[in-house]
User: Which sequence fits this backbone?
């Protein structure tokens, strides 16, 4: 009986807007337009603070789109996604309150509501990035162990760019304004763990929007790195 319900749940179609109501081409075009508008919003002094304020909403919208275009859900997948979210959040809680994991830093207001001085959204960000990077590399059909390592390296590369922009967007700030090597080492190790969890539990990684969302975010942060002061 359990297996039947599990199968039915796993194959249940997702019809939340805009999936199956708007063509993927139009959704991808919306994503590109969304990030172009965002870049201009941060560039214009009069609107910069407004766009910092709505950053959490933008990140949640991206996560929503990624979630509804996930190919097939299962109870196992939801459990693993929840685990990565919780681990990501509590690792950051320990990190920001002790300085032992990433180094000494503090979160600003750019990522929204905080608990234990840590934005709830940071757990979502870990899940988004792990899943999106894993999904993109899954398409290459390479060795699973190599794929995990490459996912962690891709996430590390993403962080190298994000770290240059985060203080300007009031996401987080490093003590003395210097990013310690410890941060990048921790990022790689955590990314490796999370990517391995997805592979170990054989989570379905097919997602037609993962590449578009990841590339759009990456280009967005690269642009902001050069235009924000």
Assistant:
């Amino acid at each position: 009986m359990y297996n039947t319900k599990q199968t039915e749940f796993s194959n249940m179609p997702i019809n939340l807007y805009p999936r199956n109501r708007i063509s993927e081409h139009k959704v991808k075009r919306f994503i590109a337009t969304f990030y172009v508008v965002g870049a201009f919003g941060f560039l214009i002094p009069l609107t910069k603070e407004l766009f910092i304020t709505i950053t959490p909403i933008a990140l949640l919208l991206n996560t929503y789109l990624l979630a509804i275009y996930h190919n097939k859900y299962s109870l196992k997948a939801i459990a693993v996604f929840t685990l990565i979210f919780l681990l990501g959040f509590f690792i950051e809680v320990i990190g920001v309150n002790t300085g032992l994991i990433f180094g000494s830093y503090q979160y600003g207001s750019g990522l929204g509501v905080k608990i234990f001085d840590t934005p709830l959204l940071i757990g979502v960000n870990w899940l988004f990035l792990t899943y999106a990077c894993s999904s993109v590399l899954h398409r290459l059909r390479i060795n699973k162990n190599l794929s995990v390592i490459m996912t962690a390296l891709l996430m590390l590369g993403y962080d190298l760019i994000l770290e240059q922009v985060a203080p300007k967007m009031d996401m987080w700030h490093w003590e003395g304004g210097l990013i310690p090597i410890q941060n990048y080492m921790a990022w790689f190790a955590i990314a490796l763990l999370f990517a391995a969890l997805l592979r170990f539990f054989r989570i379905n990684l097919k997602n037609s929007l993962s590449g578009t969302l990841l590339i759009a975010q990456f280009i967005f942060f690269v642009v902001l790195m050069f235009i924000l002061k």
Observations:
- The chain has one domain: 24-227.
- The longest helix spans residues 75-98.
